[in-house]
Structure formats: structure tokens, C-alpha cells
Amino acid sequence: MAIRDDFEVAASQVRTAVQRFALGLLVIAAFGAMLVGKADTVLVEHARVLALDLASPVLEAIARPVAAANRVIADLKEFASLREENARLREENVRLLAWQTAARRLENENERMRGLANFREGPEASFITARIVGDSVSAYVRGALLNVGRKAGVASGQAVVTGEGLAGRIAEVGENSARVLFVTDVNSRLPVLIERTRERAILAGDNSPQLRLTLLQSVAGVQRGDRIVTSGHGGSFPVGIPVGEVVETGEGSVRVRPFADFSRLEFVRVVDYGVSGLVGGGSSPAAPSAPPAGVRIR
Amino acid sequence: MRADGLLAMLDRWGRYALPGATLLFFVLLTLAPLRAPYLSGALPLLPALVVFQFSLATPERLPGPLLLVMGILLDLLLGGPGAPVGVSALGFVLIRAAVVNNRRYLVGVPFLFQWFGFCLLVLGFVVLVWFFTALWTWTAIDPLPALMQYAVVIVIYPLLAPLLARVRARDPLNVPDASRGTARPGETTS
User: Fold this and answer.
1) What is the dihedral angle through the alpha carbons of B158, B163, B167, B171, rounded to the nearest 10 degrees?
2) CA-to-CA distance for A167 and A135, rounded, in angstroms?
3) Domain count, chain B
4) What pLDDT, on the 0 to 100 scale, is given for residue A274?
5) Considering only the top CATH level, what class is A126-296?
6) Distance from CA of A59 to the nearest CA of B (A)
7) What is the C-alpha separation between A225 and A223, in angstroms, rounded?
């Protein structure tokens, strides 16, 4: 009996030791993973893409009912303010009709001028419509997962737009999934133009709902309500996608509110501009003369 | 060893798989596009809540290596360029170790104590993730969103914890030694 007790005591001691040791091992493994991730970014990129591809079917299954529920809630909210909403829309409609007339006139005029000047148009853009199947929104990231990937023609660096304006750019691409980095993410830097003054600047995110305008020539030229559009510098973005409007001009800092409503995104469009710039990896030096077969608009 | 029927076997397997499966579900749920204000921001901390709660009840069904894998998966999915992969894994493993080593103060005590323990441990988790993310990306990250996340998950805990606690064995004596702690027969934990 005593021997057996001794044995059991010894065994339990060994077990405890192994458990202690196991914790150390696990901690070391976790640190190892972090260090590997820091040293070999390509490997981590591959692992991320693999994880995305594996998770995206599941996420898609979750996303649909969630989106439906969100829509019902939004509908209910709108129902409450139907009257005011209607009045507002009617007013806006009148205003937009006036703009439409102006736009038609300008487009005609522009076309004639271009004909006169022998102007060569930039490459045509094609759109890939995608459903947002996952949010990667945390305290550190602002982004989303899309259900389209390399198979549909999505490539890293392409612009992602909503009806209202630019949402972000493609950061990672898997076979059937892609990760968007929103313009509000702290890692997002976007070359932009101030539409009124044609002045160039960089629009930087800082994980807050608003954006920061940096590298301006002069803050004095910026006014509240100025529209900010993409400048197309850097190559991968089309020119003139609306991004946001200036809401605050202080000394040294200009805050911009993005047009895209990130809290209600469900579908987005990935713009394939047919240009592979610096961000796109530059794997195809010859600019494709024809955009890949897709839904071609304009 | 008595011969088990098919149902009993399924039951046992289910019991063993449940904590891991729940954790996996919450890891995936982190990415679900819930558009509820505040709540969607706190989603990334829910896996930590699950780890805490199951480490209280059945740590042997949530082994360290599994936590490591789940943490790395969470980091990969949550993404963000330059963010450290494996920091959640580190946090999960440490939460489990802390809970297992402090069962005396956490198992068989009033719910408020558990809540308090959860507050402390998750604060450690949030600080750890914040610290390593800041270190890895070498930027001064605004800690406010992370603290906001923390506050929300603290509030969520009393809502979610009893639900997860239903999974555990009713009587603390009915579970293996490792997870019994110092609980006495007839004591319940919530």
C-alpha cells in the first residue's frame, strides 16, 4: 500500500512538473509564433489567406441571417422617421435633378472638347460586386472580408467603393476571399486631391470614424465642406472617386468625414482599373490593353 | 469500465468537444458583421470570455495546445497588417493557467467574485494585446478603443457566463480532480 501511495505521489509530482513545463512550452510557442510572424511576413500572409479561405464559407453562412436581421432593424428605425425622410428625399431629388441637367450639359461639352483635343481616355474600369461576409473590426483594425477572391479577378491594391464613395483597398487576396482595409484604418494612407483647389494631400486613417488630411501645402486653402477625391497617384486607383468631405479645420490638422457609411456596409464593388501600380505588386509590366471580362461599366 | 451505449458515447464525445467547438464558434463570430453599436466592437474579446469560463468549469477539455491553435487562428482572421500573430494565443494560455492555479478563489465562490476575477484577467489580456500590438507595429496606439471594448465585455459577462456555465457538470464532485479544486460536495458555483 505504502509503495503504491509513494508511487502515486511521485506520479502526481511528475504530472505537476509536466503541467508547469507545458505552460512554459506553450508560452514559448506563442512567442515563437509572434517572432516568426515578425520575421517572415510572407509566411504569415499565406497563413492569413489560408485561414480566410477556410473561414469564408462559414462566415458567409453566418453573414446572411445577420444581414437580414440588421436590415429588419434598420427598416424599423426608418419606419419611425418615414415622414421626415420622405420630405428630405423630395427636397434632395429636386436638387439632384438640377445637378443632373448640369452634368448632362457638361458631359456633352466635355466629349466635344475631348474630340477637339484628341484626348486619350484612361483605361476603362470594371467592377466586381462583392458581399461583405465578415468584419475585421477591433480596437486595432478597421476592415472587412469579402466573398470574392483571385478567381473573380480581385487583386491586392484595388479600390473598394460603395455607392457613396471610396471604402478602402484590397489588402489580402485568397482564392475565394479577400480582405479590405478601410480608409479609416490606422495603416491606410491615400493620395488625394481637394476637389475645389486641386491641391494634393495624403489622407490618413487613425482607427477613428474620421480621417486626417496630412502633407498639405497649406492648411489655409482648405475650407469646411470641401470634397476630397482620390488623386490616382500611386497608380492603382482611378482618379476622382469621392472619399469624404472636410468637417473640421484646426491649426495644423484637417479632419475629413468619409462618405462611405461603414456601419451599414453590405455590398461593395471592387474596382479593377486594369493598372497594376506599385501597390499591386507590379507583376505585369505591360499594362493590359483590355480589362478582363467582367461587368464593364463606362 | 462499463460498456457504454451509443448514446452515452455520443454524450461523452459531445461533452469533450463542446468547449473547443464553442470557442471556435466565438472565434468565427468575431468576424460576423453584426452592426450593433458597442457590441460588435467587443466581439474580439468574447473568445477570451469563453476561455475563462470553460477554464473554470472544465479546463481538461480545453487543453493548452488547442488554445494555442485557436489564438493563432483568431489573430490570423482578425488580421491587420503588422499585428502580432500569436498574442491572443499567449493571452488564452495565460488566462487558463491563471484560472487553473487560482481555482480556490474562483470555483465555488459567489458569482461576484468570479466576475471580479474575470475583470482582472481580461484587463491583463487587453493590456497584453495592446502592448504587443503597439510594440510590433511600433506606433502609439490609442488605448481608448481597447478600453471601451473591455468595458463592454465586462458588462456582457454576467449575461453570457451563466449560459456557458450550464455546460458544466452540476456537482463539482462529479468532475475529474483537476477541475474540482477545493469545492465541497453539494457546493454549486453560480
Assistant:
1) 60
2) 13
3) 1
4) 62
5) mainly beta
6) 7
7) 6
B94 Cα to chain A: minimum distance (Å) = 8
pLDDT tens for B28-54 read 888 777 666 666 667 788 888 888 888
Residues B106-137 pLDDT 10s:
877 888 888 998 999 999 999 998 888 888 87
- Rounded (10°) CA dihedral A163, A168, A171, A176: -10
User: Greater confidence, A204 or A66?
Assistant: A204
Q: What is the 3-state secondary structure (H, E, C) of chain B?
A: CCCCCHHHHHHHHHHHHHHHHHHHHHHHHCCCCCCCCCHHHHHHHHHHHHHHHHHHHCHHHCCHHHHHHHHHHHHHHHCCCCCCCCHHHHHHHHHHHHHHHCHHHHCCCCHHHHHHHHHHHHHHHHHHHHHHHHHHHCCCCCCHHHHHHHHHHHHHHHHHHHHHHCCCCCCHHHCCHHHHCCCCCCCCCC
Say yes or no for a CB contact (<8 Å) between B80 and A23: no
Q: What is residue A286's predicted lDDT score, i.e. its pLDDT?
A: 38
ipTM entry: 0.71
Please report residues of B whose CB lies closer than 8 A to that of A266. Answer: 33
* Mean pLDDT in residue range A158-186: 87
Which residue shows C-alpha cell 457566463? B161
What is the least distance, in Å, from the CA of B120 to any CA of chain A? 19
In this structure, what are the phi and psi dihedrals at residue B167, rounded to the nearest 5 degrees? Answer: -70, -30
Q: Which residue of A has its CA nearest to B133?
A: A140
What does the DSSP 8-state code read for residue A146? E
Q: What grid cell was written down for A63? A: 453573414
B110 interfaces chain A, CB cutoff of 8 Å: no
Q: Quickly count helices (H) and strands (E) in chain A.
A: 3, 13
The grid coordinates listed for A73 are 432593424
Distance CA B175, CA B173 (A): 5
Average pLDDT score over residue span B163-170: 66
pLDDT digits (tens, 9 = 90+) for A229-245: 888 777 667 788 889 98
Cβ separation B79–A185 shorter than 8 A: no
CA–CA separation, A251 and A71 (whole Å): 41
Residue at B82 is within a domain: yes
Whether B18 maps to a domain, the answer reads yes
- Find the mean pLDDT for residues A15-38: 81
B88 lies in some domain: yes
For residue range B76-90, list pLDDT tens digits in order. Answer: 888 766 678 888 889
At A277, the pLDDT band (50, 70, 90 cuts) reads very low
Q: Is residue B182 part of a domain?
A: no
Q: Domain residues for B43?
A: 9-170
Q: Quick check: A231 and A193 in contact, CB under 8 A?
A: yes
